[in-house]
Structure prediction request, 451 residues.
Amino acid sequence: MTKTLNIIGGGMAGSEAAWQAANQGISVVIHEMRPKVGTFAHQTGNLGEMVCSNSFRSDDNEQNAVGLLHWEMRQANGLIMNIAEKHRIPAGGALAVDREPFAESVTAALKAHPNISVSYDEITELPDDGHWIVATGPLTSDALSASIAKATGAEALAFFDAIAPIIYFDTIDMSQAWMQSRYDKGETEEERTAYLNCPMDKAQYEAFIDALMAADKTQFKDGETAKYFDGCLPVEVMAERGRETLRFGPMKPVGLTNPHAPDDKPYAVVQLRRDNALGTLYNIVGFQTKMTYGAQKEVLRMIPGLENAEFARLGGIHRNTFLNSPTLLTHDMKLKTHPNLRFAGQITGVEGYVESAAMGLLAGRMAAAEINGDDLPAVPQVTAMGALVSHITGGADAKTFQPMNVNFGLFPPVDGLKGGRKGRKDRYKAYTDRAKAEWLGWLGQEKLAAE
Prediction:
């Protein structure tokens, strides 16, 4: 085998894998088919482009598993987290970014690295030799998907994913809407007012639910079948599960006070989050949709404050694919039948930008260690990284395997701590304290292995 690491796909996982391996002295080639070959969701040829949301979710590294994953990636000099910090915009306790300059900076950093080159070509067949990481994500091309299916001896699993609409801020009626993060969360006034809120009374909510359920929806192609991922359900699918589902989900009215009518408690609240640093674009939180474009405009303009809304991007739905990783991948993310291939990112069955980048980080480091002839220690399962990779490479039940976000349910229990809601704060702090110590230890051992 050559000493070059080839990476198929320049999304979150591929970008992070390339950065990590290159920093270990490995020559890396990123193979990205965009912009020559486009996808339903991508708009540019930039590496690290965000297509669904501009949020990396919670940044709390003591009480939240995804925040802990942020912390672990930062300790490993993660490219995605470092650049996200540079393009951070207010989002309460979440880490959200101005998506276009974020992707431009990811692209610039990778192209400026002396050990990295980018080849804009489509790889249609899995290679038989050389060192490769497949990080093509949920929108893997049809040709490569067919090659993967042939190599694994089974059809890739599939699920439908949706993206939320984006609205121009200057078309929102601020005499009805107001700016506030739930429970005024955030250390600065900007963070405490990071979200835009549109209130509904009961009659408005009931009419909205009726319209949502009656709206025209995107029809799938003949023979196209897939499940929805529970963490990214279209808003109308949630409504179909019960008329109150949205009020206890993305439209919950808790932790908010309407300054236009402080004595009136809203029955439901639609939240929008800033989508760029200028504050000219806002996306509707939790409103992924499969409504047709015409129906979206009609139904979403029923939301108080959005009657005259203009859309920078309408929502949509697309079919995503992923491997049944517990049956197909080894503990170090190699395809069992093709040990020259590692898989990383959403195609492995993790869900979310952060999780995808994290699996890219591990795959890049594992590949670099192998090429350098180093003996890389196993990632501790008590870390966020270890819990997630252990889940997808064997911890999950292959029969019911579905895309998974990082969560504390994947972590081994801490002895002596009580379960249940009352003990949750202490339990989560114990998880994160333990994980941080083990992750720093692993990073130190990894450095020693490379010396």
